[in-house]
Amino acid sequence: MNKVLLIGRLTADPELRQTPQGTAVTRFTVAVDRRFRREGGQQADFITCVAWRQQAEFVCRYFNKGKLIGVEGSIQTRSWDGQDGKRQYATEVVCDNVEFVGSKNESGSNGAYQQNFGGSFNAEPQSRSNSYGGSSYGSDANAGSDNDGFVDLDFSNDADSEDDLPF
Question: Which of 105, 108, 128 is closest to 116 using CA atoms?
Fold first, then answer.
């Protein structure tokens, strides 16, 4: 299985480019803090990511240098012959899903471009359902409710509540 999850900050503003066939692509670097730091050592890893098509447009439109970004994807390695004749290698994360991370103020979100949960963007729409009737979170059925698709549990009769637990 080849699966990568990253949360970090963009090191520069992403630039939207086009392939000769007209496909949108952007390459950006994410600075990801290391879990454990050695004294005097590097405190972050700088990981190159590539987004294609609508994902690339989304990243370039709503993210800029220093913003927190969540990336889900897979590692890809490639090689080519450089101008000097030496073999060149690159390892990068190909983005399957890109998400806003952090508060609305930090992400600069205004709700108009937030998609799925908390501002994630996935080129393929996702259908998520809860186990209480199969309605989608965020659907019109839940519009205006304060429970965000969760069911409220009634524990008003505390004496019998232990007997009703399913485990």
Answer: 128
Rg over alpha carbons for the chain, rounded to the nearest Å, is 21
Q: What are phi and psi of 109, to 5 degrees?
A: -80, 145
Reduced to 3 states (helix: H, G, I; strand: E, B; else coil), residue 33 is strand
With contact defined as beta carbons under 8 Å apart, do 53 and 123 qualify? Answer: yes
Q: What is the mean pLDDT of residues 133-162?
A: 46
Q: Whose structure tokens read 């101008």?
A: 83
The sign of the dihedral angle between the CA atoms of 18, 106, 115, 121 is positive
Name the one residue in this structure whose structure tokens are 């799925």: 116
CB of 34 within 8 A of CB of 42? yes
Stronger pLDDT, 117 or 11, i.e. the higher one:
11
Q: Classify 32 as helix, strand or coil.
A: strand
